[in-house]
Design a protein that fits this description.
The protein is 77% helix and 0% strand. By secondary structure, it is mostly helical.
Length: 252
Amino acid sequence: MSVMPVRPLRWLLPVLLLLLLAGCSGSLKWYVVSPLTDTGRSNLLFLLGGLKYTVLLSITAIAISIVVGLLVALPGISTSRWLRGANRVYVECVRSVPILVLILWVYYGLPIVMGISVSVFWAGVIALALSDSAFEAEIFRAGIQSIDRGQLEAADSIGLGYMDRMRYVVLPQAIKRVLPPLGNQLVYMLKMSSLVSIIGMEELTRRANELVTAEYRPLEIYTVLILEYLLLILLVSYGVRRLERRMTRDER
């Protein structure tokens, strides 16, 4: 069984220790985030408490965006001009709206438009999933169109209908090919989840902002926030690369 390499941690952990143990004199007060002090440990635990919300928000949003993106991608490969036009309108319109603006509109506007109450968590999920679905649709469309046309003709020759052809021939191969870019979208989603802090979501960035307000030490606290995101993204990126290498070996 393969063991996860620690090369990214060889330089990350020393940097973290140097920052936390750099001393308390001068203008930098690292004790507020140092694991060697009671205050620092309490603050670090508070910051790490937002990690589960960041991960849960990102995974939920990416799962929904994948489903919506696939449904949007199918009209994009249709022979119907109207269906392809609908696909383009959706993709271009959604991609043109900044995520931050979409988050604010969903949280403040959706209850007015539809008369429903939306929690902070689900407002973030809806906005992130809606924004990402346009990119997912393009990924799926490219993956489906990359399938060799000879396989489609072979499926037609044995009498497979559209649904069976997509289910048994096209989608299994297309999904395998688009898994790496889908993983990259998860990395993107993890970073964009920080914008949900604007509406009060208690994820990593919101926790850091609250701690800065309490401790008045923005440099030290935001440095730890950067390291939290850096370590999280490195781990996810490593998993995506391993998945991509495994898929490449399987295709050989």
